[in-house]
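One example copied in:
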Amino acid sequence: MERLIVQIIVDIVYRLRAGQSVRAICRDLGHSRRTIRRYRKLAAAKGYLDPCRPLPEAAEVLAQLGPVYSPPSSNVSSVEPYREVVTGLVGQGVEMVAIHQRLVRHHGYGGSYSSVRRFAHHLRPRGKEVVVRLEMPAGRCAQVDFGGAGRMLDCASGRLRQAYCFVMTLAYSRHQYVEFVFDQKMETWIGCHQRAFESFGGVPRELVIDNAPEAHKSQGGGAAGGAGGPEAG
């Protein structure tokens, strides 16, 4: 069973309101048609799809429509036609974000990053997994990940645009800050960090960058030390 997070619930409602088809939403977000149709029915009953009414706030959408459980999609993955390409890239050790970007740029793929990640996961050899837990003191370290998130509705312009997901995870508490943005500019990258620090109420001593925007990579971005100020847990 899958539980749709707040951002996805809101995104589904906004996409339906903008007139995107159920099939297109399934392709972009990686959820089943049954799930999308269920949210369409719930949203229509609440009047959220009426273009004459103002767009509902995210908190209201969640309160009225979520959290809702739905069965996972039994549809064939949107990545299946690119199996040979993905298999080759996985074998070369290419990162998931880079695989998704290559499919989009060079093969016309229109699906989400999460769909590619799930598909690639099933291609890996299923050996015995060994898990090593790394204990970090509070405020010591945070992990940053940045990758494509498929196309999402930009409420400022009312258009569907390529989105990116910024995630910062505190190593000690595993608390996370998640933000969706629509570009990979350096000022956006820095702004995401600043808002994450404000959300945590402090700054970790070290940052481990798993994936970074192309603009940051071109300048040699990597692990970085934290700035001064109170330390986050």
Notes: The two ends are 31 Å apart (CA to CA). The first strand starts at residue 2 and ends at 3. The chain is about 40% helix and 20% strand.
